[in-house]
TrEMBL record:
Residues 1-143 form the NADPH-dependent FMN reductase-like domain. It comes from the Bacteria. This is NAD(P)H-dependent oxidoreductase. It comes from Halobacillus salinus. The lineage of its organism: Bacteria, Bacillati, Bacillota, Bacilli, Bacillales. GO terms for molecular function: oxidoreductase activity.
Amino acid sequence: MKVLLLNGTIVGTKTGVLLEEVQQYIGQLPDSHETKIINLEDYELQFVDGRPAEEYNEDMQRLIQEVEDADAYIIATPIFQGSIPGTLKNVFDAVSPLAMRYKPVSIVANGGTLQHHLVIENQLKPILNYFRCMVTPNYVYTHTNHFSTQGELIDEDVRNRLKEMTRVFNQYMQMSREIEPDKS
């Protein structure tokens, strides 16, 4: 399966650190999966305004295609101002609502306070439910204290939760293979 690890921001390093950790755990799964980390900072993003995909620049068209072609997703996001970044919401606005249907998704997020985990429940999960994704129940939320001053992940409990999330994500990937997508 093609697993897309989407870094939903264009600033900072912590979400990237978490995705690299998850990518290692996916590599240790019994089944082999093709993984790709997408860092939005590597794309010339355009504001999505309802135009057809072919009217956006090449980077946006490539990003849309990569998201739509994936079989499963790990979405990593920081929490800014009590919300997901506009860059991540812009990606969701760009893809077809049918593109992510019945595809497994796990969520990794980080923020400056412990309470910001509620953004996952109140904003990100409803968006993914709109897409009818198969969202795993065990997202991983981190905060500043889980990282060194150099931005390295230093919390063993977070590593264990990422491993467990990856294990459940793998079971969701297996389950998704048996679902016939509704093309309507």
